[in-house]
């Protein structure tokens, strides 16, 4: 585990060393795990870029809103599929499982998003991936572990299905909901492929697309090339610094949800 952990941390340490080294060493690729000629000005230059702040705001928005929408839709469907009075719930479950084997192809998905008028809209990065069969199965399995006596007692007290869902099921399901939050937050924050297909305006690019354009196209589509030519920092230093800036938010969120992760994943996967 120590070796595995070090192998995952080493690239981040290398990027930090490159971003803090002097330009001549970074450009010549002579930096390993320790900076050569310490300087911190590159991060000030990165945060002075308007594109970085705008892209980070877009990424935070689609991650937060997308996670909320996913939790709401998946938990509602999962709860409905656990209720005995739900008609055809076994058939619906089989149809959900089929999506594991036959995912939606790219072209029909694009045509649907276009027909719904979500091209060049942030909703195109939220709605298509809001419902996940994997999340529904985990939450449904967790809900099935809630004692049936709680539902009967709530109905005797006059609670309807809506109040049972909001007052009993959701408060008891915080571990599995935290697990799904962690899964979707990481996935949404790191995704860029959907944005490259659906988003046309540079102002709506999330941070990962900005980073992808910087690395793959060397900043040609992000307006970064002129900035790099007008500063003392090399493209290698800028790339390393921006990668770390893009990774930092998710590294902060992960430890906050980690304590719920193992419990939620286990309880949501071993019962049937």
UniProtKB/TrEMBL annotation:
It is found in: Cell membrane. PROSITE patterns: ABC_TM1. Pfam families: BPD_transp_1 (PF00528). Coiled coil: none annotated. It is a multi-pass membrane protein. Residues 56-254 form the ABC transmembrane type-1 domain. CDD domains: TM_PBP2. This is ABC transporter permease protein YtcP. It comes from Paenibacillus marchantiophytorum. The lineage of its organism: Bacteria, Bacillati, Bacillota, Bacilli, Bacillales. The gene is ytcP.
